[in-house]
Amino acid sequence: MIDFELPEQLVTAQDKMHALAEKRMRPIAREFDEREHEKPWDFINFMWGDTKREVAGQLKALDQTEEERAEAKKKSAAQVGGQAMLMGALLREEGAWGDAGISLCRPGGGLGGAAINAVGTPEQKRRFFKRFTEDPPKWGAMAITEANAGSDTAAITTTATRDGDSWVLNGEKIFVTSGKMAAQESDGWVVVWATIDRSAGRAGIKSFVVEKGTPGMTVTKVEHKLGIRASDTATIVFEDCRIPLDNILGAPEVQKGDTTKGFKGVMATFDATRPGVAASAIGIGRAALEFVREKLAENGIAVRYGISPYRMTAIEKDIHGMEANLKAARLLTWRACCLLDRRQRNSLEASMAKAKAGLAVTHICQKAVELMGPLGYSRDYLLEKWMRDCKINDIFEGTGQINMLIVARNVLGFGRDKLK
Q1: From 211, 316, 384, 397, the catalytic residue
Q2: 199 and 97, same structural domain?
């Protein structure tokens, strides 16, 4: 029999995060939506303690022997049932239920940290993460997108040229999540994708860590956005930006036609982070659905179950459809996480989860506003905000269209040359 019940350890962690979201995030959601680009410092400082402890544990593991590492892994598996990635998704869902923008303000390595964890050397991990164990709060970021290279990362034009014992970066990156906090406001760093050989195509694209305060790295713009307004999204320009030679992630050698190192290694970080984005979408959709059910109940409208669809009211059919979409997205997300927890490839499942969740939450929030009419459109309630917040989950870390393309390639067994 298939059991979809969560282990007690995960339920406990989920409940704690829900309490945090309910008490520290939901009450200030409207305030920091209105005060765009201001930071919820009480929340940030509260979460910084958790970040420091997590990073300290990661650094300690780097210095363990193989036997000590195996023993620690067994202990961790016993604590969370061997489901660390699944627990992360549960926490992301609860955080987004509280507020998606504020959740993204949490200090830490972010997507840039995921890239360093994926392909960085032990020495690089120690060097770049050590600062995340010391006050005050700090951020990491990932700079990928360019004006002419959004979903098509092979079109990246930012360059990295070797000059003696340095790399020199030139180019502009847009829509960098937490870019201002990482590059300007804290002692953080930005992981930048750049090409060292344009003729090599994707094989020539590598990742570089640029630390805060590096001459030539400038934050030129902070976006005014539709949603997740508490989180900063920046444009960063690199102009003759010189970084140490060992700040490249992965091998500097380029083998044309071979993307198994460097670029593909960093792309693998998306297999770990896309389920988290899907979980965030689910949290927003759940918040909207709960709001609708609450308001219907207040007005004496019950949603019936176990009856023929032909006997359902239009509202009941809508609610059932919203619930089904939300649960389908959640199960896809949990599957993608469980595969990673088992150290199995999940490229197909991660893209399926993110594509489904992005579509589902957009439909759910739009339908929720529709069902609530003036209440859904009023700024007296958070529903209109959730509708604005939700769409980003269908855009960043690979648009819905790109993820559907990845799914098609995996299912059909086609490469980029056959299916674009």
Answers
A1: 397
A2: no
Q: Which residues pair with 249 in a beta bridge?
A: 207
Q: Are residues 279 and 346 in the same domain?
A: yes
Angle formed by the axes of helices 84-98 and 263-298, to 10°? Answer: 50
Give the chain's domain count: 3
The reply to whether 292 and 408 lie within a common domain is: yes
397 in active site: yes
3-state secondary structure of 238: strand
- Of the candidates 85, 84, 88, 86, the one whose C-alpha atom is nearest the C-alpha of residue 103 is 88
Residue 217 is part of which domain span?
140-249
Q: In this structure, are residues 194 and 146 in contact, taking their beta carbons and an 8 Å threshold? A: no
- Tell me the pLDDT tens digit for each residue of 10-24: 999 999 999 999 999
Question: Which residue in the block uniquely carries the two structure tokens 């197909």?
Answer: 348
Residue 255 lies in a domain: no
CB 103 within 8 A of CB 89: no
Query: Is there a single domain that holds both residue 149 and residue 118?
Result: no
What tokens were used for 278?
């899907």
Residue 316, in any domain of the structure? yes
Rounded Cα distance between 333 and 4, Å, is 13
Q: Return the half-sphere exposure (C-beta side, CA atoms, 13 A cut-off) of residue 415.
A: 2
Two structure tokens written together for 2: 């298939």
What's the pLDDT tens digit per position in 163-196? 999 999 999 999 999 999 999 999 999 999 999 9
Q: How many residues does the chain have?
A: 420
The DSSP letter of residue 333 is H
Q: How many helices (H) and strands (E) does the chain have?
A: 15, 8
